[in-house]
From TrEMBL:
<keyword id="KW-0004">4Fe-4S</keyword>
<feature type="binding site">
    <location>
        <position position="454"/>
    </location>
    <ligand>
        <name>[4Fe-4S] cluster</name>
    </ligand>
</feature>
<feature type="binding site">
    <location>
        <position position="250"/>
    </location>
    <ligand>
        <name>[4Fe-4S] cluster</name>
    </ligand>
</feature>
<dbReference type="GO" id="GO:0004044">
    <property type="term" value="F:amidophosphoribosyltransferase activity"/>
</dbReference>
<feature type="binding site">
    <location>
        <position position="359"/>
    </location>
    <ligand>
        <name>Mg(2+)</name>
    </ligand>
</feature>
<dbReference type="GO" id="GO:0051539">
    <property type="term" value="F:4 iron, 4 sulfur cluster binding"/>
</dbReference>
<feature type="domain" description="Glutamine amidotransferase type-2">
    <location>
        <begin position="16"/>
        <end position="234"/>
    </location>
</feature>
<dbReference type="InterPro" id="IPR029055">
    <property type="entry name" value="Ntn_hydrolases_N"/>
</dbReference>
<keyword id="KW-0658">Purine biosynthesis</keyword>
<keyword id="KW-0479">Metal-binding</keyword>
<dbReference type="GO" id="GO:0006189">
    <property type="term" value="P:'de novo' IMP biosynthetic process"/>
</dbReference>
<protein>
    <recommendedName>
        <fullName>Amidophosphoribosyltransferase</fullName>
        <ecNumber>2.4.2.14</ecNumber>
    </recommendedName>
</protein>
<comment type="pathway">
    <text>Purine metabolism; IMP biosynthesis via de novo pathway; N(1)-(5-phospho-D-ribosyl)glycinamide from 5-phospho-alpha-D-ribose 1-diphosphate: step 1/2.</text>
</comment>
<dbReference type="InterPro" id="IPR029057">
    <property type="entry name" value="PRTase-like"/>
</dbReference>
<feature type="binding site">
    <location>
        <position position="297"/>
    </location>
    <ligand>
        <name>Mg(2+)</name>
    </ligand>
</feature>
<keyword id="KW-0460">Magnesium</keyword>
<dbReference type="InterPro" id="IPR000836">
    <property type="entry name" value="PRTase_dom"/>
</dbReference>
């Protein structure tokens, strides 16, 4: 289960990672390795469902991939087709009931679904389905999709899936599996990336390309917005379930979520973050003695900033990689000190120095304040904060766990007020234009094909009124 005590006070978290494979005798083992590579996308639960063409084998549990799976239960996952999931909840509760892939029995057989993202019309769809007699067993958006498929009068699973997906509004990359069919689909805006690779005769899908490298699969291409891939007795075919809309890849994939060794939208994440650091140096130069990044997601941007300015890059902050999850509930006083369990300042690096601290984002401001204080306590004479994303002023409805708008510090305070709040000598955020230029995707598409709603408030889909009334805006 996610530790709500000290580790998620001021971080953005993305909902889930998915992995799938078809046509390999070791489907379960390869899915395990794929999920392990995607562990950073969700630590609450993990699951794998496989099929041998006749029946499903299922293993799901709460906790990390290495805690849920072992040699014994992996061997019990039979078949050459499998889908897997790691979960961080932004909607629905924690616990085994909401662990994916979700498995259902309905009139036409068995059905397994793994999704990542968030539907902005899920509550309305759920109400409508309940009025028609549907009984829900979980609180996830994913179950809504299953009920839509089960209630469809379409002649087969492919047409039923198309009918269901056309009722969804929001961000999703998903895999739907029966005993004889695998369906892979991407929302019409491509908000949540999904890629395809080949491994011999097998075909592999993953939220991030880093999982392909782990298992030795060769990247083929990204799944297109509105595209549906179908694998069944007839082989593989591609179709569309909806017209391709304006592409809007989540910009935080490059800023924060994806692993540096992944490529998202054809762009290497590490290279994009280094360019963010270089552009930050152009937009906000400063005289200093040392540059350090907040590990790990800000390290690349810090290196880019250092290279552009000529200021030495040093490991001024060290991450404790063995914190894991805690079952000890701290007092409020200890909770305020919790960041020290995750990070330590290197006194020998920062003492007596003017320090540039590069971080990827500021959400509530609490963590930034603690890190600035930590650097000063370690002897830094000045702390200049540079942020490789623009100010986060608006909540995300597409699968990022952002707080309500009133809890986002940039929505309530000016940059100067934030600087004072976190105790920095100077504070600068990269511009929206600078961030998009750093990512480097072609300028032919609006916002270079990215969603920037959390910075500008320009959402790529229509939002349900109830979300607004709930105070998210």
């Amino acid at each position: 289960m996610r530790d709500e005590s000290i580790f998620d006070l001021d971080e953005l978290n993305e909902e889930c990672g998915v992995f799938g494979i078809i046509g390999h005798a070791d489907a379960a083992q390869l899915t395990y390795y794929g999920l392990h590579a995607l562990q950073h996308r969700g630590q609450e639960s993990a699951g794998i469902v496989t099929t041998d063409g006749q029946k499903f084998s299922v293993q799901r549990g709460t906790g990390l991939v290495t805690e849920v799976f072992n040699n014994n239960n992996i061997k019990q996952l039979l078949g050459s087709t499998g889908i897997g999931h790691v979960r961080y909840s932004t909607t629905g509760g924690t616990g085994l009931a909401n662990a994916q892939p979700l498995v259902f029995k309905y009139a036409k057989g068995e059905l397994a679904i793994a999704t990542k993202g968030n539907l902005v019309n899920a509550k309305k769809l759920r109400r409508d389905l309940e009025e028609l007699g549907s009984i829900f067993q979980t609180t996830t958006d994913t179950e809504v999709i299953a009920h839509l498929i089960a209630r469809s009068s379409a002649p087969n699973i492919v047409e039923a899936a198309k009918e269901a997906l056309n009722q969804l509004v929001g961000a999703y990359a998903l895999m739907i599996m029966t005993n004889d069919t695998l369906i892979v689909a991407e929302d019409p805006h491509g908000l949540r990336p999904l890629s395809m690779a080949k491994m011999g005769e097998a075909t592999v899908f993953s939220s991030e390309t880093c999982a392909f490298d782990v298992i030795g699969a060769e990247f083929v291409r990204d799944i297109e917005p509105g595209e549906m891939l179908v694998f069944d007795a007839e082989g593989m075919r591609t179709t569309t379930f909806a017209p391709k809309a304006e592409r809007a890849i989540c910009s935080f994939e490059h800023v924060y979520f994806a692993r540096p060794d992944s490529n998202v939208g054809g762009v290497n994440v590490h290279a994009a973050r280094k360019r963010m650091g270089r552009i930050l140096a152009e937009e906000a130069p400063v005289e200093a003695d040392v540059v350090t990044g907040v590990p790990d997601s800000s390290t690349s941007a810090a290196i880019g900033f250092a290279e552009a300015t000529g200021i030495p890059y040093e490991l001024g902050l060290i991450k404790n990689r063995y914190v894991g999850r805690t079952f000890i509930q701290p007092s409020q006083e200890l909770r305020e000190q919790g960041v020290k369990m995750k990070l330590s300042a290197v006194r020998g690096v920062v003492a007596g120095k003017r320090v540039v601290m590069v971080d990827d984002s500021i959400v509530r401001g609490t963590t930034s304040r603690r890190i600035v204080t930590m650097l000063r306590e370690a002897g830094a004479t000045e702390v200049h904060v540079r942020i490789s994303s623009p100010p986060v002023k608006n909540p995300c409805f597409y699968g990022i766990d952002t707080p309500d708008r009133e809890q986002l510090i940039a929505a309530q305070k000016t940059v100067e007020e934030i600087r004072q709040e976190i105790g920095a000598d100077t504070l600068t955020f990269i511009s929206v234009e600078g961030m998009l230029r750093a990512i480097g995707r072609p300028a032919s598409e609006r916002n270079r094909g990215h969603c920037i709603a959390c910075f500008t408030g320009e959402y790529p889909t229509v939002l349900e009124d109830e979300l607004v009334l709930e105070g998210k805006r």
